[in-house]
Amino acid sequence: MREADLTDLAAGRGTRVRSVHYGRSEGLTSLQGTFGDSPNVLRSHDGRLWIPMQTALVVANPAKLYETAQPPPTLLTRVTVDDRVIARYNGILSGTGEATSAFDLAVPETVLHLSPGPRVVEIEFSALGFAATENIQFRYRLAGLEEDWVPAGTVRQASYQRLQAGQYVFELTACNSDGEWNRTSSRLTIVVAQFFWQTWWFRLAMLLLFTLTLTAVVRYVSFRRLRQKLRLLEQQAALQRERARIAKDIHDDLGANLTQIAFLGELANQDRGEPGLVGERMVKISATARQAVKSLDEIVWAVNPRNDTLAHLLDYAGQFAVDYLRLTGIRCRLDFPEVMPVRELSTDLRHNLFLVIKEALHNIFKHAAATEVWVRVRASDAVLEITIEDNGCGFAAAPDDALADGLRNMRQRMVEIGGGFAVASRPGQGTKITLRLPWPAPA
Q1: C-beta separation of 292 from 257 below 8 A
Q2: Binning pLDDT at 50, 70 and 90, where does residue 89 land?
């Protein structure tokens, strides 16, 4: 032990005392004392130490013990990664693929490149000393991971586990038996590559992908809300149109009939003194009331959502055609499919189709002078086709009268619901009206 170490320890300036080893390099022929590893020691009056050994007597003169002049230089001897040799002093890389190029640890400023995620990195080192090598001690640190020096004592290996991606510098120094440390250290730069998900371009790509995804989600949610609002507005607009249509039907049909009944009632009251006129007024009142009941029935049928199917439309229109033409003495023939296609029709579409059919039958009664009428229905996955044909007088061109107005109204109604309207007629050969309504194929 050094006196200076003991003094520092006693004064509280140090925490440990280094022992100094002397062996064969100092001339000892035997390292075993007579009483084990710690033999008895005698000091003579001249200051020499007498140490009995098993095979000799050692005489040590402390006055002649020399101090080691310089600490020994250090060197890195080998580097292994996951039990595979990567580089060695004055050696060649073992070809394991762990580094980007072969290099020698003896080359200054060497840089060791490692693939991502090394499990264990071991660095072996040594010192160039030939006297009392057992007194040489080491310390090291890995800059970038450690700030303070790690005392290794006489151990000549450093081990690191799970190094993260980055650049590190391994520094190594050694001291002699006098505790003098090297002023310069052996250095080795180690670069651990990044996993692909740790690279800047991957993070940039992920940020861009996240931004695009977030933008797409926001746009999707916004468009979905916009479509919901638009659908709600369309439903409200359709409801308003339906309410306006119902009000118009009530005003035009039912209101007109009730007004006529009230007017005929007043006339009958005024003609109480003439029974014949009163009877005539009552007949008209009865007929008008029946017409009002029929108009009310049509309004209720059109409004009821349970009737929004093709089957209900054809059943109601066919029954109406038969009843209406029977009163006028015209024979009505129906040619409907035995099995009705399952199709839903909106209230507006169903009502307009019925009004077109009703207007066509009304024109036949008023202008065609027909004796027979055929109502034919053809339905496919792409189109609904309704044909109304009579054997009446026909015409070369639509006259400029109520008949022409009726044809224009029917055409306009079909255009409003996205359908087609065609009229074919010749004088003396009857008239054929064709209604076509395209619809998408069922899902």
Answers
A1: yes
A2: confident
